[in-house]
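Re: How this chain folds, sequence and tokenised backbone to follow
Notation: Tokens come from a learned vocabulary of local backbone shapes, not from coordinates.
Start of record: The labelled sequence and token lines come straight after this line.
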Amino acid sequence: MEVESARLTNQNITIKNIHLNPAYQKEYFAYLHPQHEDWFDVTAEKIEIQNIDFLTWFYKDSLNIQKVTIDNPVLQNYKNKKYLPHPGGCP
């Protein structure tokens, strides 16, 4: 993961230019993992998480968030055509 900047203020988190970069290029992923079907590359210009209830999260193990905003998300998905799923679903 690559992040240009991250900022925590009171109950808010702002993350700018986030890139969940894959470990391998999509063609190499298909070669290394023939039994896996999907490859993803995800980016977003900014993610804002507002009004996080940290006390409830820490003491009751429950995460309450009022609002999440994602600016300009891009999701690239690659389907591994070499992957042959088992008949009837999962093995």
About this structure: The first strand starts at residue 2 and ends at 9. The CA atoms of residues 14 and 48 lie 5 Å apart. The helical segments are 26-32, 54-60.
